[in-house]
Design goal:
about 180 residues; alpha+beta; glutathione-dependent formaldehyde- activating enzyme (gfa); eight-stranded mixed sheet; about 25% strand; binds zinc ion
Length: about 180
């Protein structure tokens, strides 16, 4: 049984220069198969985990690099990344300042992650096969409400994490300052 993640969650870039903590449950998790996400990730798709900005803290934010881009949706998105190791840590969508889109592959514990939906599947690599029952969108979803609702239901159905992930699961990044 996959468990609900315990809070706070933590994560960071590959080199450990930037670490973050998340103190609220995210709004959802989804995969995006647009051409930009494939290029940015150098992989098959991007993953996003929208989180209320008030529940997200990143160390050394003033040193993060910023790349502004017109997304496939037509909106401007600021990609924030570590200028030492290049890891993309989160996105700031201009249309929705209260939200940051954390790139959830940067979490210390990714064991609980599961996309509630897949976006831009019309441009997905041909081998990608979303799990049965996930929400499928050919392009940009008209609204994210269904993705949010499904995530809330999935988390409510999972038992809570009994304790923080053991050190063996961590990726070797240093602990966040102040902890
Ligand atoms: Zn780094
Ligand atoms: Zn995308």
């Amino acid at each position: 049984m996959v468990r609900r993640p315990s809070l706070p969650m933590s994560g960071g870039c590959v080199c450990g220069r930037h670490r973050y903590t998340i103190t609220v449950l995210p709004l959802t998790v989804y995969a995006c198969h647009c051409a930009d996400c494939q290029t940015q990730s150098g992989s098959a798709f991007g993953m996003s985990m929208p989180v209320a900005r008030s529940g997200f803290r990143v160390t050394g934010a003033e040193d993060l690099g910023t790349h502004l881009r017109a997304a496939a949706s037509g909106r401007t998105v600021a990609g924030r990344f570590c200028t030492t190791c290049g890891t993309r840590i989160f996105h700031e969508p201009s249309r929705n300042p209260p939200i940051v889109n954390v790139k959830p592959g940067t979490l210390d514990d990714t064991s609980w992650l599961e996309p509630m939906g897949h976006l831009w599947v019309d441009s997905a690599q041909r081998w990608v096969a979303p799990a049965d029952g996930t929400l499928i969108y050919p392009g940009q979803p008209p609204a994210f409400d269904d993705l949010y609702r499904r995530f809330a239901a999935a988390m409510a159905a999972r038992p809570p994490e009994p304790r923080a992930p053991s050190a063996g699961r961590m990726r070797g990044a240093p602990p966040a300052p102040g902890t």
